[in-house]
Specification:
The chain has 6 helices and 3 strands; from the N terminus they run βββαααααα. It has 128 residues and is of the alpha+beta class. It folds into 2 domains: 42 residues, no CATH class; 71 residues, no CATH class. A hairpin with a 5-residue loop joins strand 1 and strand 2. The chain binds zinc ion.
Length: 128
Amino acid sequence: MPVYEFRCQSCRRLVRLTISFAEYGKTEPACPHCQSKELKRRINRVALAKSEDARMDSMMDESALSGIDEDDPKSMGRFMRKMSREMGEDMGDDFNEVVDRLESGESPESIEQSIPGLGADTPGGDFM
Ligand SMILES: [Zn+2]
């Protein structure tokens, strides 16, 4: 089941919610700390960290993400490309397509909508 990360716009906490694909879009996630519904979706580090690799863990800590502007698709694209290189794994065509499109400045939302199955709980397909 996919895990989604949000930043609560109200209390600024990181919120991690497990939402089934069927539920997603139907339910409105609320912050467990302050019940605010103003949650902003974050890059899904949880799904990416399925690997038990320790190197991965260190890459996934907050400092590794501090250089990313979540509102800047290009910086997200650069980050994702760097990460896939460091993992030394082929993340699949969808991943590469998303990275390419992020780097060209396309918004994650628009990319997500145009790639069927993205966000489903499939390997390599649940990284945003
Ligand atoms: Zn909150």
